[in-house]
Design a protein that fits this description.
This protein is of the alpha+beta class and 511 residues long. The protein contains 19 helices and 22 strands. This is L-xylulokinase.
Length: 511
């Protein structure tokens, strides 16, 4: 049976996953990719190091699969969206890649929000700019690094860089192209869209656009040497990881609300007509004439990871030594907390929020008799509440018949049940562990004719699913708590800028 390689590059880990054409996962290999934060709000990484880590993961995945490299019919990549990966005019990396957690452009976005830029961008591109959007980052580089700005030859996203490393070809797909500079009506790059941000001199640096399941090149001899792939293996264009995750769990379909509980709170639904609203991003879906409406914020399980790193370090050290799971070790604490009521509410705004990057996280209702499990329960609840904030906006704009969930949190049955109760709706979790990589593999398979389309491939592989039903009594409790959670956030909103100013008064060098 032929196999397919899907590459999934997240914000901290790059993965290579090999699948049989029937959807069976044969192997997965991971490599951590170090981040660099040389200044406050900067989050970068070395582009060459990213490619080397990805190549190493591919080589290991091939070895683990028990198959020959020649059995891999095609490869496609997905990766974090937004951010910025630049090449100079000689097609060499132009500085580090900038990740979507970067917020150096905050002051620029704040200034844009006070004039017509937000209004004009929403009317033309279907979305208001945010701090890690290519538009904002390029404007920041123009202002602060003019020499680098003048040397820009090609504007790429992360997965486009990996495609270039594999095949030597430069380009992007429809989903990735729509992060800043496309007209939402035509779904094509528009010079006047760049003019809104004062970036029209860079229009020629935008990459050519192809379908996600289109063959855009073949593995080069150099890439074959580094990865163990066979030279000449077809490379498909690939797609934005948000869309890949929805596709990989069978959720890139009209009427299906796809939720990704990962670093970002991702909530998306496909439509056959564009619908613009400041509460979501109206971006391109995989196919022309389809739109992917995304309500997002960097406020999901990154908060859970922060809690583990900050308050569970000794347990993490123990599990690291014996190969166990920190999640299993803490399960008893969480289960005990879930069985009792609590006054604690948590706003998961440690890295961003639906209110923008000026918001900050908070525990409220905390007392001396609460323990770590109570706080951890509040963190999980806050994550689910933040998703509900976005989901409610999408429910107002689109007819939704089904909700599907993926991401690290979807592996915890108690957490999934919380989602069902918080949303007061059935939630489906599929058997696909690596949904984003599988979405990329489906594009690779469609590119070489194994599937008629990526979506058809998702339908025919026969992934199993479990549906979690809401418990009415629990939903009623969560509904009351969510209402209070929202009112507290609204009350804090005017104070967040003042809170941030406290860092500038900290004589001890705090931030």
């Amino acid at each position: 049976m032929p196999s397919l390689l899907g590459i999934d590059n997240g914000l901290t880990v790059t993965k290579a996953v090999i699948f049989d054409a029937d959807g069976t996962q044969l192997s997965v290999a991971r490599r951590r990719v170090p981040q660099s934060m040389p200044y406050a709000r900067w989050v970068e990484r070395d582009m060459a190091g990213l490619w080397q880590a990805t190549a190493d993961a591919i080589k290991e995945a091939i070895a683990l699969s028990g198959r020959l490299a020649g059995d891999i019919r095609a490869v496609a990549a997905t990766a974090h969206g937004d951010g910025l990966y630049l090449l100079d005019k000689d097609r060499r990396p132009l500085g580090p890649g900038i990740l979507s957690l970067d917020s150096r452009a905050g002051e620029i976005v704040e200034r844009w929000s006070a004039d017509r830029v937000f209004e004009d961008a929403l009317a033309r591109t279907g979305q208001a700019p945010h701090v890690s959007a290519p538009s904002a980052l390029l404007a920041w580089i123009r202002k602060n690094q003019p020499d680098r700005y003048g040397r820009i030859g090609h504007i790429l996203a992360c997965k486009d860089w990996l495609r270039f490393c594999l095949s030597g070809t430069i380009g992007t797909d429809r989903t990735e192209a729509s992060t800043s500079f496309t007209d939402f009506r035509t779904q094509a790059f528009a010079p006047d869209a760049m003019r809104i941000f004062g970036l029209d001199d860079l229009f020629d640096a935008l990459p050519l656009m192809a379908h996600s399941a289109e063959i855009v090149g073949h593995v080069t001899a150099e890439a074959a040497e580094m990865t163990g792939l066979r030279k000449g293996t077809p490379v498909a264009c690939g797609l934005h990881d948000v869309t890949a995750s929805a596709l990989g769990m069978g959720g890139h379909e009209e009427g299906v609300l796809a939720i990704v509980a990962g670093t970002y709170s991702i909530n998306e639904v496909v439509s056959t007509e564009p619908r613009v609203d400041p509460r979501w991003l109206c971006r391109n879906a995989i196919d022309a004439g389809r739109w992917n409406n995304m309500a997002i914020s960097p406020a999901s399980t990154a908060n859970y990871d922060w809690f583990l790193d900050t308050f569970c370090r000794s347990e993490q050290d123990k599990t690291g030594a014996d190969g166990g799971s920190i999640h299993n070790l803490l399960a008893a604490e969480i289960d005990a907390a879930l069985k009792k009521s609590s006054t604690i509410l948590f706003h998961p705004y440690l890295f961003g929020s639906p209110f923008g990057d000026v918001a900050s996280g908070s525990f409220v209702g905390l007392h001396g008799w609460h323990n770590r499990g109570d706080m951890l329960k509040a963190v999980l609840e806050g994550i689910a509440f933040n998703h509900r904030t976005h989901v409610e906006a999408l429910r107002e704009g689109f007819a939704i018949s089904e909700i599907r969930l993926t991401g690290g949190g979807s592996r915890n049955p108690a957490f999934v049940q919380m989602f069902a109760d918080v949303l007061n709706a059935p939630v489906i979790v599929t058997s696909t562990d690596e949904a984003a990589a599988f979405g990329a593999a489906l594009c690779a398979g469609a590119a070489v004719g194994i599937f008629a389309t990526p979506q058809q491939g998702a339908r025919q592989v026969g992934m199993t699913a479990r549906q979690y039903e809401p418990v009415p009594a629990s939903s009623a409790v969560f509904n009351e708590r969510f209402s209070l959670y929202g009112r507290i956030a609204g009350a804090l909103e005017p104070h967040w800028p003042e809170i941030e100013k406290l860092a500038r008064q900290d004589t001890g060098g705090g931030a």
